[in-house]
Each structure stands twice: as structure tokens, then as C-alpha cells.
Amino acid sequence: MPLTRDYILPLPPLLPYEAERLQALKNMNILDTPQDKLLDAITLEAQAYFNSKSCLISLVAEDRQWFKSKQGLDAKQTPRNISFCTYAIAEEEYLIVPDSLADERFANNPLVTGPPYILAYAGSILHTANGYEVGTFCVLFDKPRTFSDEDIAALKRFGAAAEKVLIEGYIFE
Predict the structure, then answer these.
(1) What is the pLDDT of residue 173?
(2) Does residue 3 fall inside a structural domain?
(3) What percent of the chain clears pLDDT 90, i.e. is strictly above it?
């Protein structure tokens, strides 16, 4: 199934301050900017650590998720209506999906049933300096996978490192 905006999946409830969150993302002036060498180094290291198919820094905009850094994925963005990260930013710290086919939110998602076949997901929320949830640091797997406490701690560490780069503006061309 082609990845189009026409594919309909129910979105999780939007955050009560969605307009402010989107404005905070816009104020970062980061969407559609070139990849960043430091962020790419973090995602590459995390991909190796987790032995994941892909590792991304995803920013959740109004109608799309855009990848500031990506390893193991060719797409630059996907529609928000099929985004795992949309669900993740509605969580408190992170979202773990050990088996996407067993999760009613994702079982029929074209990112699960077709390429890139996301069968497990772990994402740590990225915040602005003011605390708005603007995206995730996430790892994707092409088979179901359990996540240990150590895995979750490592995910949060990688996410915190990426968040620090994004907040402090250490963006390099």
C-alpha cells in the first residue's frame, strides 16, 4: 500500500495544548533543514547498540512526521496519521510497542503491514526547553522484540543526548 495522506487511521487524542506545541516546533526553525552530523552520530550509535533496523529523530508536525536524523530508512517523512511517534508524544516519557501486529493501534498500519515493516517500536519523547513534546528519538525493528529495563534506560539516554543537541542548537551542516 503506498504511503499517502489518504490512508485513515484513528489518531490518538491531540494534546490539550496542541496549538502551542506546534508553535514551539515551528519556533525551533528546524523542519526541512539538512541532517546534522552530531545527531546522525547519536542515531548511528543507537542503531548499533539496539541492533535495530532503523533509528530516527522524528519531529511531529501538524500533518507529518519529519526525520531530522535517520539511519536505515530512506523516507524523509511520513504522514502523521500513520505515525507511531504521534502516539508516543501523548505518553509521559516513552512508548514501547513490543509487537505491532498485536497492538490494535498499529496492527493495520501500512508501516507495519508493508515496508518498512515496523514490528516493534521504542520511542523516547523529545521536548523543547519549555517542555513541549515535539518529537521522538526512536528505534524500529522488523520483528517483535521485548525491551528490558536496561533497553529503556539506554533509549532514554540516547533521547536525552539528542534533546540536548536540539535544545542547545548544536546543529552542524
Answers:
(1) 41
(2) no
(3) 84
C-alpha grid cell, residue 67: 526525520
Q: Is 9 domain-assigned?
A: no
Mean pLDDT of 132-138: 97
CA distance 172 to 20: 27
CATH code for the domain of 123: 3.30.450.40
Please say if the pLDDT value at position 168 is more than 90. Answer: no
Angle between helices 37-50 and 149-168 (to 10 degrees): 180
* Residue 63 main-chain phi, psi, to 5 deg: -125, 10
Cα→Cα distances 76→32, 71, 99, 122, 139, Å: 9, 11, 24, 19, 16
* Dist. CA 146–CA 3, nearest whole Å: 27
Q: Which domain holds residue 138?
A: 18-168
